[in-house]
Amino acid sequence: MSVPAFTSYLGIEVERMDNGEAVATLRLAPHHRNLRGVVHGGVISALLDTALGAAVVSAIPKEWWCATTSLAVQFLEGRSDGLLRARGSVLRRGGRVAFAGGEVRDEAGRLVAAAQGSWHLWPHHPGQPEGSGPSSPWVVGKNTGERLRVGKILAVGRNYAEHNKEMGNRPDAPPVVFLKPASAIVHDGGAVRVPPGVGEVHHEVELVVVVGKEGRAIAEADALQHVLGYAVGLDMTLRDVQAEAKRKGEPWSIAKGFDTSAPVSAVVPRDEIGDGSGLTITLDVNGVRRQEGNTSAMLHPVAALVASVSRFVTLERGDLLFTGTPSGVGPVAPGDVLEARIEKIGTLRVVVGSD
User: Fold this and answer.
1) How many CB atoms lie within 10 A of CB 333?
2) Do 162 and 284 share a structural domain?
3) What torsion do the CA atoms of 191, 196, 202, 205 make, to the nearest 10 degrees?
4) Please, are residues 240 and 199 in contact by the beta-carbon 8 Å criterion?
């Protein structure tokens, strides 16, 4: 953690900060004492502010910012020398504010001071308007409002046997991985803008994995530790453009990566969902059921996909992994309303428009 100049002048060091917990230390020196020969209250306050602030920083996404808004300190014992150790922990955190508490003890374990405080949180640089700069494009946490900047969008094709058959492939055809640009993101309630003159546009409802921890060549046994959460997604596809590219043996990036081709719902934490299996997945178009399946039918489950993709591409926090679609894909037209659902995760609703 980078500490302010005043804190550096005092000699405060952050020993540890992880998952809402932090420890900061200070070796007392003559310039820390007041006229009575004991450590100045302002020094104790700075030590506690550092420990509690570090705890808050460790509990928010890396791209977020925070600032102390209040700090109440109770002084219990005076000390003039030795090592002081402050421990801080996040007590509660919302979308815009965090509360933390902590204490300072001396080398003998005696309590010197205790504190509680509050911190204002920004999901973007305070000097930038929300929704601009590094916070966009983004996905949002369900119920928390936390924004996570999207990095790469990777997508897997041919991961459901019935869909493989309807597309003319072997049921056990090997999966294919392709990329979409971040500009393909659309949020719940948004619109898919279809370019003119492209022929049929198809819907494909999918479970989306949101990466929370960087990794490369991840072991399948460890893969879920790199998953932040899950979302409902749509892999909108320019089917005629894709078919023509396949016929010519050319890449079909445009067919999958046009602007607004990747609608994504709010993100639900992995802890609430598990490994992503056993979830009913559906898509309705104008209230009529088009797709229905279960994520347990995936030929390659989430952990296997994360491990496989990470052999070739480093996965980073904020990357999205679309995991394939069940059977029932079909065309949509301007004015259509698409409503995708995945059990335990939620609903994604978008409309189809035209450029």
Assistant:
1) 12
2) yes
3) -20
4) yes
Residue-wise pLDDT tens digits, 196-241: 999 999 999 999 999 999 999 999 999 999 999 999 999 999 999 9
Paired with 332 in beta bridges are 201
CB 153 within 8 A of CB 181: yes
Residue pair 12/31 in contact (Cβ under 8 Å)? The answer is no
Same structural domain for residues 339 and 256? yes
Read off the tokens for 44: 């104790």
What residues pair up with 154 in beta bridges, in sequence order? 179, 321
The radius of gyration computed from the CA coordinates of the chain, to the nearest angstrom, equals: 26
Is the model more confident about 80 or about 122? 80
Question: Considering its fold, how many domains does the chain have in total?
Answer: 2
DSSP letters along 270-337, please? HHHH-SS-S-EEEEEETTEEEEEEEGGGBSS-HHHHHHHHTTTS-B-TT-EEE----S--EEE-TT-E
State residue 132's pLDDT score.
44
Question: What is the structure's pLDDT at 354?
Answer: 83
What is the domain-level CATH number for residue 222? 3.90.850.10
**What region, left, alpha or beta, does residue 43 occupy, with left being phi > 0 and alpha being psi -120 to 50 degrees?**
alpha
- Looking at the fold, whether 252 and 195 belong to one and the same domain comes out as yes
